[in-house]
Every structure is written in structure tokens, then in C-alpha cells.
Amino acid sequence: MQAIYLLSLHAYGLLIKLGALFHPKAKAWVEGRKNWRQKLGAWQRGEGKLLWMHCASLGEFEQGRPVLEAIRREMPDIRLVLTFFSPSGYEMRKNYATVDGVFYLPLDTPANARDFLGLLRPDMAVFVKYEFWHFFWKELGNRGIPTLLISAIFRPGQAFFQFWGGFFRKMLFLPERIFVQDEASKGLLDRIGVTGAVVAGDTRIDRVLAMAEEKKEWKLLDDFCRDGKILVAGSAWPPDEQILVKWLRDPSSEGWKCILAPHEIGEETIRSLIQRLGESAIRFTGAGKEQTAARILILDTIGMLAFVYRYGHVAYIGGGFGKGIHNILEPMAQGLPVLFGPRHEKFREAILLQEAGAAWAFRNAEEFIKRMTFLTNEENRKEASEKGLAVLRRQQGATGLIIEYLEKLKS
Known about the structure:
Elements: H1 2-19, H2 24-33, H3 36-42, E1 50-55, H4 58-74, E2 79-84, H5 87-93, E3 101-104, H6 110-120, E4 124-128, H7 134-142, E5 147-152, H8 166-171, E6 177-180, H9 183-191, E7 198-199, H10 203-211, H11 219-224, E8 229-236, H12 238-249, E9 256-262, H13 267-277, E10 281-283, E11 296-298, H14 305-308, E12 314-317, H15 329-333, E13 338-340, H16 348-356, E14 359-361, H17 365-375, H18 378-395, H19 398-410
Parallel strand pairs: 1-2, 1-4, 2-3, 4-5, 5-6, 6-7, 8-9, 8-12, 9-11, 10-11, 12-13, 13-14
Helix pairs in contact: 1-2, 4-10, 4-19, 6-7, 12-17
């Protein structure tokens, strides 16, 4: 099975190189890994202990980030290196100031693992959520480097738990400690003999609750939100926008305004969106005080959304009619009831918040309008808000458990 695994990785690498001829992301994947040995060898490691964290992409980075920032705050003498598998993660965070170096992770082959670890010489390694790399983990073990898997979540359908998955099961015995998000994941690990897993929760919850305490203000938003109730639509795709337009044209939306953060904010995308929405829409970067009577304010900048949720009364999270919903923890930490489309089943937090009565899924515009009508009532919103915040507060503390363990490894 190891030979098949290695062959599949080589095939993947070849396909990516072929794809690089036509696809920008594949090209970035290939270009970013060129001469990686020279790049890593030229990096000044310095003295002292070094912790290496690996994330697949931006989503996993957001789960690793609270740990990195806590290490920098509480163990400032430790050097930090961050690696990514995907170009989207690397390009967005290659200048992340909390760490001392950011690199691409090469393909998981025996030679790459040996060379990478020989050049980096980490004292500890942390992998985030779904990052299972056989040869890297094996080489870390051979070198006696403690390895952690954090914010992990497991499901019965994964290869580890199938009768044919022996090769993959063995991988789960390689990390020194696995920190999982829930009891169900721990139960699956217990069943196959992986003992010592710790139910820590989701590290993102610690971060979003801390961010909710940071108050950022924008005069334009203050003016726009002064009159009426506010729906904040985060990471909206075209199918989400269509539903929002139908709702805004429905009489039940009277008294509501919408702050809309599109998933794509390229100039052509924003202009097309404004054209579809009509005169009732303005963009954040081009709006003046006299325009704040509009019903829709389009956020055409990045980095604001997590802090803008505090202006809202309800949040709509996009992506539920595509590959899956985006971050619902940020609005929930601000006390907003949350609505999203049908593709949310793989998101543990979405299930928890629905069960608590703090979030709702919908399949079409009619169901969305019905939910919004329910949430127009202040008491209904307040009850949902309290239930959602209670869920988050019960789940916080994962970062502290991981830091406590890392401090023991360091000493």
C-alpha cells in the first residue's frame, strides 16, 4: 500500500505540472515549490528551539493561528515556521508577521521528508485538522521530533476506519498527541486503538471570541446602520445574491438593510453586482454620507468582515449553494443568529448551532424569507443570540490545552 500511496503522489505531482500549463493556481503550486531546498537552506534558522506548523490552506491556518499567536505571546523565544500545501494559503499569508518563516511544503516523498527536516531541523511539529502526511510523519518519528495533530475531526466514512484502510490507520499512531474537536472523533480513534486523544475543541472559537472584544468603527457604517435592522451577508456568491435580491423585494424585508460582502471583490465583479442590484446599492469605497440612505452597502475591501458583523442583527453566510458554507463562527461570536444554504453538513459548528436553535439552513428564497420574518422579531433574535453564544463559550479553551502541552514539550 505504501508503494501505491507514493505512486499516487507522483501522479498527482505530474498532473499538477500538466495543469500548470493552463491553470493559474496549478502554475502557482509548481512555481512556489521550485528550488525549495535552496530557499529553505538560505533561510536563517537561528539558535534555540523551533516549532514547525503545517496547514493545508487558509481554513486550516485560521485554526492554527490562535496557537501560533499564543506561542509568540507566551513563549517568545521559540522560532516559528509555517508551511502551506495550497497556493491560496501561501499567497495570502507569506508575509504573516507572527512567524519567522513561511514556505511551501513539498510533496510527501521519503527524499523530500528527509531533506526538508534536515534543513529545517524543527524541535516540534504541529499539523492542523486534515493534514495526514505519511512520510513526513514517519521521518519526524525517526528523528524523535514530537508531532501533534490539532483541531482534528474524524468521520466514520474516512479511510482510517474502513476494513481496507490499514495503511492509513497506521498513520494515526505516529503523532505523539492528537487534539480532536469532539467526543465522536475521540470515539472513532479509541475504536481503532489510538489512545490518548484529547477532546480540546475548535481553536477558532478562542480566536473569534477574542476578536469580538476588539471594537473597530467606521463612520460610514455608523451612518448606514443608524436607521433600521441590518442583515450582514458574508462571503456571498451569485446564488446567495439572487436569494438576497428576492428577499429585499419582498414586503417582509421592510425596515431592513443589507451589508453585502461578496466572495469575489474584483472590479468587474463589483460593477456587475451593482448593475444587478440597481440604484439601491452603493459600494463602501465609493460611498459618501449623502448615499447612506441606500438599502445595500457592498463591502469591496478585504479584512473588514469579521469586525463588521457587530453592526448586524442577523448574518447570512454564503457558500451553501456551492462547495460549502464559509465562516459562521465570526458572526456567532458577535451574537448574531446565522442563516445559510443547504451545503453545511461537513461543518460541525453549523450542526451544533442548529441543534441549539441559533442557526438555520434554508433551501430556497421562500424558506429564507420565512426565517427572516421569524428573526424580524426582537425576542426571537435575542433568544437565538444567547443560545449561540452559550454554545461557543462551552467550546472555548482548546488553545490553552495545546499551549500547556507544548510548554511541557519545550521544557
